[in-house]
Amino acid sequence: MTSSLEVRTISTAEHLAFVEGRDTVSFLQTPAWAQVKAEWRGESVGWFAGGELVGAGLVLYRKVPKLDRYLAYLPEGPAIDWYDDDLARWLDPLTRHLKGQGAFGVRMGPPVVTRRWHAPTIKAAIADSALRTLGEVPADENDPRGHAVAERLSALGWSEVPTTGGFSAGQPKYNFWVPLTDAEGAPLAEDAVLKNMNQLWRRNIKKATKAGVEVTRGAREDLEDFHRVYAETAERDHFTPRPLAYFQTMWDAMTAEDPDRLVLYLAHHEGDLVAATTLVRVGTHAWYSYGASTTAKRDVRGSNAVQWQMMRDALAAGAEVYDMRGITDTLDPDDSHVGLIQFKAGTGGQAVEYLGEWDLPINRLLHKGFLTYMRRRG
Q: If both were cysteines, with which of 12, 75, 141, 201 could 28 make a disulfide (CB 3.0 to 4.6 Å apart)?
């Protein structure tokens, strides 16, 4: 590879071919995601060394009210060599390209892991009244390469976005992974994945099976049933649900890109829909995307049954990671979010810390004004 890199717009076909040739590209960096986020303008960009495409990313542009200027956002991306000692040769041409597109600032989420905490460590930390956040807990795995990337970003003028910020499109810094391979990278058997779970998870899966819960894959027309249960979940858990049209757009865009990119799961008990979820897969990474369950019949444990089926299918499809997505870093027993960590830790997986999201102002005045506007909206 030559020392200089060029960044330019690439076609959807070029972008998709690059994604399909990699095992670890986020679904938020696929061409289809630009169609899902219709309120943003999308662009596929590529890094070229000579004539060879060596990196790619999806840029989402959010327009400033009343101005023809944009914030350029690359969620969980781009897909470049983040561990290159000369990170500037990747990011400087990106900044120049985005500035030419009218961007006043750039936000990105490097897909770089810094620390990991295994389930037993998390369980012990929650029980320790002296600990309030995951960051206070010594990690089971600490990757110095990730911390080196953070130092390089800072030296290049980028700054990490506070995780408590109000930017509505932000992705979680902490995620929860269930590894589907052993330490040598060999696929785990289903029994081994099940054995790694705690007693409550195994008991609930067994209870669902004994109760006769059936988990099946759904089609586009089943999104209405999914959304009905999802809206019930939103009301129960006090969050604002996305409209049905959002999920229909997501289905159309992602399954057109790859029929197996997005899968809908439905858990029924005696004909009643008791839980429903969506699974996204790119390469060897599978993500639990959205989940919903009814208040009625919660004792048949449809949520555990559908999670277990998604893990099994991800394993059968060759996935190396089942990603349960975001968690907060709280360990405070009085914080309702700690229940989510406990639920996910029951799978026997691990909490994973990313570098977080990083900002680079191009026009500082516009950048500051836009973030103030977004905070007020949030």
A: 75
pTM attached to this predicted model: 0.94
Query: Each residue of 72-105: b (16+ CB within 10 Å) or e?
Result: bbbbbbbbbebeeeebebbbebbbebbeeebbbb
pLDDT of residue 166: 33
Measured CA to CA, the distance from residue 275 to residue 214 in angstroms comes to: 10
Residue-level pLDDT at 164: 55
Residue with the two structure tokens 């770089």: 112
CATH no., domain 6-109+357-377: 3.40.630.30
What pLDDT, on the 0 to 100 scale, is given for residue 228?
97
How buried is residue 240: exposed, middle or buried, by Cβ count under 10 Å (0-12/13-18/19+)? exposed
List all residues 6 or more positions away from 333 whose beta carbon is below 8 Å from its beta carbon: 126, 129
CB 364: neighbour CB atoms within 10 A?
10
> Under CATH, domain 181-319 is a member of which superfamily?
Gcn5-related N-acetyltransferase (GNAT) (3.40.630.30)
**313 contact partners, CB below 8 Å, separation of at least 6:** 263, 279
Of the candidates 157, 179, 211, 171, the one whose C-alpha atom is nearest the C-alpha of residue 314 is 179
